[in-house]
Amino acid sequence: MLALGKSLTKALAARTLAPQVCSSFATGPRQYDGTFYEFRTYCVKPTKMNEFLENVKKNIHLQTAHSELVGSWSVEFGGRIDKVFHIWKYDNFAQQTEVRKALANDKEWREQLLIPILGLTDKQESEITYLVPWCKLEKPPKEGVYELVTFQMKPGGPALWGDAFRRAINAHVDLGYSKLVGVFHTEYGALNRVHVLWWNASADSRAAGRHQSHEDPRVVAAVRESVNYLESQKNMLLIPISFSPLK
Fold first, then answer.
1. pLDDT of 27-46, one tens digit each?
2. DSSP of 95-151
3. How much of the chain is helix, strand and coil, in % rounded to 5?
4. Cross-strand bridge partners of residue 193
5. Are 74 and 236 in contact (CB under 8 A)?
6. What pLDDT was estimated at residue 24?
7. Burial annotation 50-85 (CB, 10 A radius, 16+ → b, else e)
8. CA distance readout (Å), 70 to 36, 97, 201, 222, 230
């Protein structure tokens, strides 16, 4: 029995001291900062796009009085095109709750913004995301176009694929043809999903840069590693709306 007790003690000690799997954007670091970003997508009725944009442009101040708008875009290419995409920033979930309460009690917001929007859209979609710890939200140097690339990664989380994914993104950044605006990891919505927002001076400069990246051995090597953890990906070309803080 004594020998068995010693063996059990050693086994437990070995388990306690086993190295922990770490990742460059595992869940731990981001939880020290409660700031999150809501991705809100409006699928607009095809004949109502102009009316939708005019209404939002006229009345968006009713919502920005309560919460911070990071950017607003219309979808130019990639999937359904009658879409408007917003990114909203919140300090934490308590703040978002207070914002929702304030808007619910704001008669002007309900009558001039919410109700008209509901009549002009087919559906709305919402995702809650965090910026990954190794990325800050960046502001582009001038007006341009944006590309939102969405990666659906294999189950297992950043501990499995985080480091390889970061190397692939940085390989593109190092070429300098496109500016990285932000990398967002989904907290509520489809899990193991990462959104990468890029800025380009134009759609043509983006295309030229992509052709260049396909010939760069550093990018090719990093992407080949990361793709082992990838299930699917898609992208959209986004055009900033006139009132968007990010142009």
1. 444 446 789 999 999 999 99
2. HHHHHHHHHHT-HHHIIIIIHHHHHHEEEEEEEEEEE-TT------SS--EEEEEEE
3. 45, 30, 25
4. 152
5. no
6. 44
7. eebbebbeebbebbeebbebbbbbbbeebeeebbbb
8. 11, 18, 19, 30, 28
Phi, psi dihedral angles at 70 (to 5 degrees): -80, -45
pLDDT tens track for 1-13: 434 344 434 443 4
CA dihedral 215, 144, 164, 161 (to 10 degrees): -140
Cβ–Cβ under 8 Å, residues 164 and 223: no
Q: Which residues pair with 167 in a beta bridge?
A: none
C-beta of residue 185 within 8 angstroms of C-beta of residue 129? yes
- At 17, is the pLDDT very low, low, confident or very high (cuts 50, 70, 90)? very low
Query: Considering only CA atoms, which of 84, 79, 75 is closest in space to residue 44?
Result: 84
Separation CA 107–CA 26 (nearest Å) = 42
CA distance 206 to 153: 24
Q: How far is CA 83 from the centre of its chain?
A: 16
Residue with tokens 């709306």: 241
Of residues 164, 182, 176, 163, the one with CA closest to residue 216: 176
CA 36 to chain centre: 10
The residues that bridge with 150 in the sheet, in sequence order, are 195, 234
**pTM, whole model, 2 decimals?**
0.83
Question: Partners of 125 in the beta sheet?
Answer: 41
Average pLDDT over residues 201-227: 88
How wide is the angle at C-alpha 123 spanned by C-alphas 118 and 125, nearest 5°? 115
